[in-house]
């Protein structure tokens, strides 16, 4: 039987293969490696997006009939159990005579889940827990959509070392340096939408475009979304965004996120201000926090967040630190809600 080290190597390879597929659209990125019983790679496959074969079927198709008998399939996502645009991968693996399946992440899909049970029922050895964190990270936006029916939400702010997001007079440009700003623009381009409140839209007159360091537009632009009831002036920069801004007058943030998901948006970037950011935090709708921390002091200016429903220490929102990166003279802290 293929040993743990060759299984882990194959999962690393399957993760690489998965990234060849599209990171947008309704389907996840999935990769698969088929190993002979002694651990030699026999075939590789990956998913190329909705309507095309799944990774397991893509890999099996590269083998002559009978060649997968007794083999191990290493796949980044639990093989599916449904007939959608393609047949169930669990059945394709069983029919090919696969003896063992190792997958990294369970499929939470309403219709597709249950592949592991189906494989076990057919006598296939099924294991999980290999590179699960990396595989989860790769498809985190798709997993949030499958579990919660909404896009993955990133909340970003920049603050001074004393935790201020603006000076006492409200001015906030610029706290961080060029490397941190370039990082924000790259992340804007990778998001489907950028959301701001009308307070920020009126006070800062942001363009909400994703730009390179010469000010040119990056090839993909997020949909600008403005939440609140106040109208923007005709001359606002946002009115010149290449995509017509979406105006959302209500406080119904889950409704807004559902609407964005229905438009095919998988990642949303919340850029403030403090009222909107606090509302997302209070509603438990933030999946990832990006805090750009600049070595400067603003004493007395406003904070990044206001009321998030925490009044006593026992109610604090504990986060997990996922990464610390230095960007020029600034730090980027990436944090996620602590698992419950
Ligand atoms: C797998 N392997 O490579 C992928 C899976 O509409 P369909 O038929 O393409 O099914 C899409 C669902 O199948 C998707 O929501 C997810 O649950 C699963 N994706 N499963 O076994 C794959 N891409
Ligand atoms: Zn499948």
Automatic annotation (TrEMBL):
This is Riboflavin biosynthesis protein RibD. Substrate binds at residues 172, 188, 208, 211, 271. Keywords: Hydrolase, Metal-binding, Multifunctional enzyme, NADP, Oxidoreductase, Riboflavin biosynthesis, Zinc. Binds 1 zinc ion. GO terms for molecular function: 5-amino-6-(5-phosphoribosylamino)uracil reductase activity; diaminohydroxyphosphoribosylaminopyrimidine deaminase activity; zinc ion binding. The active site is at 56 (proton donor). GO terms for biological process: riboflavin biosynthetic process. The lineage of its organism: Bacteria, Bacillati, Actinomycetota, Actinomycetes, Micrococcales. NADP(+) binds at residues 158, 174, 200, 204, 273-279. Converts 2,5-diamino-6-(ribosylamino)-4(3h)-pyrimidinone 5'-phosphate into 5-amino-6-(ribosylamino)-2,4(1h,3h)-pyrimidinedione 5'-phosphate. Its cofactor is Zn(2+). Pathway: Cofactor biosynthesis; riboflavin biosynthesis; 5-amino-6-(D-ribitylamino)uracil from GTP: step 2/4; Cofactor biosynthesis; riboflavin biosynthesis; 5-amino-6-(D-ribitylamino)uracil from GTP: step 3/4. It comes from the Bacteria. PANTHER family: 2,5-DIAMINO-6-RIBOSYLAMINO-4(3H)-PYRIMIDINONE 5'-PHOSPHATE REDUCTASE, DIHYDROFOLATE REDUCTASE FAMILY PROTEIN (AFU_ORTHOLOGUE AFUA_8G06820). It catalyses: 5-amino-6-(5-phospho-D-ribitylamino)uracil + NADP(+) = 5-amino-6-(5-phospho-D-ribosylamino)uracil + NADPH + H(+); 2,5-diamino-6-hydroxy-4-(5-phosphoribosylamino)-pyrimidine + H2O + H(+) = 5-amino-6-(5-phospho-D-ribosylamino)uracil + NH4(+). Residues 5-127 form the CMP/dCMP-type deaminase domain. In the C-terminal section; belongs to the HTP reductase family. In the N-terminal section; belongs to the cytidine and deoxycytidylate deaminase family. The keyword Zinc applies. Zn(2+) binds at residues 54, 80, 89. Its EC number is 3.5.4.26, 1.1.1.193. The keyword NADP applies.
